């Protein structure tokens, strides 16, 4: 049964809407009536109803502001706005921000039923699409794995797709919101190329493009610029042939896209093979000597210099991942017995971009670590440790850095890390991962919730990233686990 929330600052109006039609016969449960926008927002965040009927003028947050908040949180909640005024400006704003409909008071019973009937069709269509997407994503996840040897030619033949062009590239596009992605849902056909589009994340699409590189009258970069103007970060793979593994080109485009994301560079980025310069390799060698000797000042200076080099030379996330894991190896080699080592671990590039968000954050983490090595521990009462765990439990579906929690509770980062490990038996990142995956397993038992919706609910935006984590921990992809 779908859930509906009614919000109006006039209680008798909210009561009237609740009793105007037989909601249950239409498949809806009224979960409450509220009289201001902030109360509505709290319930929406907690219950995530399919529908909210909201007055356009309310204290706290008005209907338009509430609609904006729902869009910012990237929820699937549909909004019907209600107004006592036939105000064209309000109607325009409502439509622009994605309201499902705009009704005038006094609400006509037949008009409301007609609107709800259209909404039900829309919700069912979304559910059908979600189930189809779940099946497709499971195949796609296996197909686009970097280790998969299936070639582009094999993939096209298996799908019965004929293609006349000899060259291939993958293009990965990351949007600021799913709304921006949907605004570019259709790609205009081109005589010079053929495209196959994949939805690979909440805000991410990936396109396999085939074309003829030898034709000088076709500019590939211009085509991407023109057709993906709403996209924030774009990554393009190297050129492949029908004999090229499809997973290889996808990973190249993904790396190129996340390189732009990591550097906050709004440019089209083409993949280049990872190779560290002589200067960077020398910095890492000097850093190892300083780490071995625990020369704190030199360590900090070299970490800052390496960070500046990564930013100045716009090193790819693949190159930065190599540097990161080399430093982690040095830490394990020379300080493996330290009690603040729990949050330091080897990571693939897709984890690094989600944990650190920028080169500065990544190298600051190492600087924090070396500061903790010489820091004197301060006793933290048991009650405060429990408050920290309760806080993590309340927001584990959000992307919150351990350093932010340390700052909030005024505890040093390294000491907080060791406290969490002592209290839970796991590092912070392991604890959050286990909470998210446990929640995902519970949600997978409800067949009415699509897998890509579960991915969003537990705090992930990238379907592939979630699939990898789930399979690594449980040995099955989410869709196969659901069938057990």
TrEMBL record:
It is found in: Cytoplasm. One of its GO terms (molecular function) is DNA-binding transcription factor activity. Its main location: cytoplasm. The keyword Signal does not apply. One of its GO terms (biological process) is phosphorelay signal transduction system. InterPro entries: CheY-like_superfamily, Homeodomain-like_sf, HptR, HTH_AraC, Sig_transdc_resp-reg_receiver, Tscrpt_reg_AraC-type_HTH. The keyword Transcription regulation applies. Keywords: Cytoplasm, DNA-binding, Phosphoprotein, Transcription, Transcription regulation, Two-component regulatory system. PROSITE patterns: HTH_ARAC_FAMILY_2, RESPONSE_REGULATORY. The modification 4-aspartylphosphate is found at residue 55. Residues 3-120 form the Response regulatory domain. CDD domains: REC_YesN-like (cd17536). GO terms for cellular component: cytoplasm. Residues 386-484 form the HTH araC/xylS-type domain. PANTHER family: HISTIDINE KINASE-RELATED, TRANSCRIPTIONAL REGULATORY PROTEIN HPTR. This is Stage 0 sporulation protein A homolog. It comes from Paenibacillus borealis.
